[in-house]
Write a structure and sequence with these properties.
Chain lengths: ~450, ~425
């Protein structure tokens, strides 16, 4: 054990040499991206893409090596004093950078032409066609989930739930959200994401998409069937059995990015009662909105456009612009370093809304509080990415049963007294207090 | 009715909230010199380590107190006048009470060591202690901690998080062996050393020496060894913080003397939490209870009495918890460091030295007395039920899974424990009813 470095990961004011190396490699990756944009990327796509991918991967792994070398345990040292994780100057810089990247990606992709071309070699390999900005973006997205997933596993390797869950989100991102859709294109099949469902991927139940899929053959029909079954049958059943976590922190790509790349920012979520009120005022209306839009679109296509004319189509377009692009992309990811990683999941995602309603009212899932053992320290609430005041429940000996809980299990991992446990148990007694008779009788 | 509470720690606040729950009209005032709002003292270490900020340690948002009509007064109580039923604040303000609860907590023990009042020598109890520690440990390279209890190990972890070399002086043979049985104490001692803390057992402090600048320069042990350091943590326990009630007529010994109803010798004056001392404690119960849990329980109990339902304090089946660096500790039942002659115990330890289990039982009927869990989590309700019902140890260990509280997908160590148990006892099969 003597070769283990001491407890601290990031003492304030200094960094481990490995972390400095990692940061240097990441800086080189950024430089290479800049150079790629100049047109060099189009000239030497393979070399440049390998360089970018290699530098990012190596940089991130070097950066997380101190976690692997430290003794296993919770190491959140200095997070509240680090300018990159404490809404400091670096955090603002990163937030502006990511937000700006999304704006360019969505509305000015031609500015990224040189970079997009570096994605061509992989694009031809996987899909037999040239890359566009979305393929380039999904490479970066997947890379972020994978390398930050490795960091996450290093950090929480003493908790098997965290390790297995993270392998799961890495697997679904790489396989279901990256390789399979690309491979389907290679086979001249519709590009389809088997891990996204209506209403998160709202267009999958829009008449246009359904019509297109059905007309594309048996596989397309299966895709429509898959999407409908997942939304209407599998989702309620799985959520009843395991809570919304089966999706939000095990499968979903948005959740996957939040859990991995967003882990350094999880404590930035707002825990105030006010934020909870805003959450409810935003989340459920968005679910209602997308449901209405979907129903209108179907009515319209059924009646041949005679109902409401083009309004439903316009509504769908605006929904896509404000909710699909601006909320989930620009704000949802761009504001990671300022508002935490689950802004979209908490305030916007209609899938999370449905899952949450089921979890709250009809599910076996809960976070059990271990009797009177809570010392109200607040680690659980601080590190809840969904802004749940977990302590408020734990210190009263109440189970945590909240619509928004994504079941990431970090509250249970950071608890220094072993007070919290994620469980799927019988619905009976789910809302009962977990304190002993001695204490109840008071 | 005006109820005045001195101290906004867990005891005072639990009582205030309990009163408000049972009586919507009582006027409740909480006086604190330490902080504007209630915060969790147990989280002080996490502020220092940068896991949390002060605001994260407040269990209730700031608007909560006004909404629940609990008056918060910031001030230091300098005197209590029982004849006129009032308390004096240092700033001259006088507050009248109908009922008074003194829940003023503790202060760190000092044992007249030379140099104990130097800057950079301190305990860790209050928010002010934390501020001092922040100030006096900035940029230093070595520290000495005196006293191997729960605060000592927390302080060691704190200093370690800032790359400060820690020398940990412990009077006993192993860390906290006045509370832990030897096997557990040895395991934790090994764990402490793995973290590169210089644990020095059977070592006592003789004096603290200052350099020319008047700051700490090192300590000298009873054996005459000099350890250079720039900070000394005094963590040899705490004692009731009651100096301000001198000459008030309230009877004290070590703490404020109370009966089982937490009543003092003066009518309408109560004491609870760290600062209270039971005049005749129940067998096996300490006279002064200095835990978060007991403070909360005493505060909640007293809320009944203060709202007209006189209730005796009963702490139920004993439990406690702690965390020694990376090893969590949960204990249920009365687990003493030395077994009593009519008891026996079964101990299991994982080869990796970070997990262990102990079950103590009465030799005559093999009924369970209590459990120690290290690096393992167990359900309090199950442990309590088994201990209360005197379940046979054989059955408990066979059914450990029912109370297992480790996260999902964790290794089922209850099986290893059962196998080890079966290998060393003549296991009696029990009928399933």
């Amino acid at each position: 054990m003597t070769d283990q470095v001491s407890l601290s990961i990031a003492p304030p004011g200094e960094s481990h040499p490995l972390q400095k190396t990692g940061a240097a490699l990441l800086a080189l990756a950024l430089l290479t991206i800049l150079i790629a944009l100049s047109g060099i990327g189009a000239k030497y796509p393979l070399t440049i893409s390998l360089l970018i991918g290699g530098l990012i991967t190596a940089g991130a792994i070097f950066y997380s090596l101190p976690y692997f070398r430290a003794l296993p345990g919770i190491r959140n040292n200095g997070i509240m004093r680090n300018p990159s994780t404490d809404r400091g100057a670096i955090a603002w810089g990163v937030a502006i950078f990511i937000t700006g990247f999304y704006i360019v990606l969505y509305w000015f992709p031609h500015l990224l032409e040189g970079l997009i071309r570096t994605a061509d070699p992989l694009s031809y390999l996987l899909r037999d066609k040239a890359a566009n900005q979305w393929f380039m973006y999904s490479i970066f997205y997947t890379l972020a989930v994978l390398v930050m997933g490795i960091r996450f596993i290093a950090k929480y390797r003493h908790v098997r739930y965290q390790v297995i869950r993270t392998i799961s989100v890495m697997f679904f991102q790489l396989g279901f959200a990256f390789l399979i859709p690309a491979f389907l294109e290679k086979l001249n099949r519709p590009e389809f994401y088997f891990s996204y469902f209506w209403p998160l991927k709202y267009s999958y139940l829009f008449p246009d998409d359904v019509g297109y899929l059905v007309s594309s053959g048996n596989l397309g029909i299966f895709m429509v069937f898959w999407g409908a079954v997942m939304t209407f049958i599998a989702t309620p059943i799985l959520t009843y059995k395991y809570g919304k976590r089966w999706y939000c922190s095990w499968v979903c790509g948005c959740g996957g990015l939040a859990e991995t790349a967003g882990d350094p920012y999880r404590h930035l979520s707002d825990k105030s009662l006010k934020a909870w009120k805003i959450e409810r005022k935003l989340l459920y209306p968005i679910l209602v909105l997308i449901t209405i839009i979907t129903v209108l679109l179907w009515l319209n296509s059924w009646k041949g456009g005679t109902i409401l004319g083009g309004i439903s189509g316009t509504l769908a377009m605006w929904y896509g612009f404000f909710i699909g692009s601006i909320f989930s992309g620009v704000i949802g990811t761009g504001f990671y370093p300022i508002m935490g990683a689950r802004v979209w999941c908490r305030f916007g995602c209609p899938m999370a809304a449905i899952l949450g309603i089921i979890q709250r009212f009809k599910s076996r899932f809960r976070i059990t509080t271990n009797g009177g053992q809570c010392i109200s320290c607040g680690n659980c609430s601080t590190y809840c990415e969904m802004g749940i005041d977990v302590r408020a429940y734990a210190q009263k000996g109440e189970n945590v049963i909240r619509a928004s809980c994504v079941g990431c299990g970090i509250c249970a991992s950071v608890c220094p007294r072993g007070v919290l446990k994620l469980e799927n148990l019988s619905e009976k007694g789910r809302f009962d207090k977990q304190v002993s008779n001695d204490q109840n009788s008071l | 009715m005006h109820i005045v509470i001195i101290g906004n720690g867990i005891t005072g606040i639990s009582c205030a909230l309990g009163i408000r729950k049972k009586d919507a009209t009582a006027e409740v005032t909480v006086i604190s010199s330490e902080s504007e709002h209630f915060f969790s003292r147990t989280a002080l270490m996490y502020i220092y380590m940068g896991h949390m900020k002060y605001e994260h340690t407040k269990p209730y948002e700031d608007w909560f107190w006004a909404k629940n009509r609990i008056n918060l007064v910031r001030g230091y109580v300098s005197r209590v006048h029982t004849e006129s039923a009032s308390v004096n604040l240092e700033n001259g303000r006088i507050i009248q009470y109908d009922k008074l609860l003194i829940a003023s907590g503790s202060k760190p023990n000092k044992f007249d060591w030379p140099g104990q009042n130097l800057p950079g020598v301190q305990g860790l109890y209050s928010l002010q202690d934390l501020q001092n520690m922040e100030l006096h440990t900035r940029g230093i390279s070595e520290a000495v901690i005196v006293g191997g209890g729960l605060i000592g190990i927390e302080m060691a972890e704190m200093l370690l998080s800032r790359q400060i070399k820690v020398h940990f002086l412990v009077r006993e043979k192993y860390y906290w062996s006045n509370a832990l049985p030897e096997e557990e104490a040895r395991m934790i001692s090994r764990h402490i050393r793995e973290h590169h803390i210089n644990l020095q057992p059977e070592t006592e402090l003789r004096e603290i020496i200052a350099g020319d600048s008047g700051k700490v320069q090192g300590v000298i042990t009873q054996a005459g060894e000099i350890i250079p350091c720039q900070f000394v943590g005094l963590t040899a326990g705490v004692r009731p913080n009651i100096s301000f009630i001198e000459s008030s007529g309230i009877k004290t010994n070590m703490g404020i003397l109370v009966n089982e109803y937490l009543e003092t010798n003066v009518a309408n004056v109560y004491a609870a939490g760290d600062c209270a001392e039971f005049e005749s404690p129940r067998p096996d119960n300490p006279a002064v209870e200095q835990l978060w849990y007991t403070g909360r329980l005493q505060g909640e109990t007293l809320a009944n009495t203060l709202t007209g339902n006189r209730t005796a304090y009963q702490r139920g089946i004993w439990f406690n918890s702690a965390k020694f660096l990376d090893i969590e500790y949960q204990t249920y039942g009365t687990m003493l460091p030395e077994l009593s002659p009519e008891q026996d115990s079964f101990y299991w330890e994982h080869p990796d030295g970070t997990k262990s289990f102990r079950a103590s039982y009465r030799r005559n009927d093999r009924s369970i007395v209590g459990f120690n869990f290290l690096g393992l989590r167990f359900r309090q309700l199950i442990a309590e039920e088994w201990i209360r019902n005197r379940k046979p140890v054989d059955q408990c260990i066979r059914e450990l899974q029912h109370g297992w509280f480790d996260p999902e997908f964790s290794r089922p160590y209850y099986r290893d424990i059962l196998n080890a148990f079966l290998a060393c006892t003549d296991f009696k099969p029990v009928s399933i009813n």
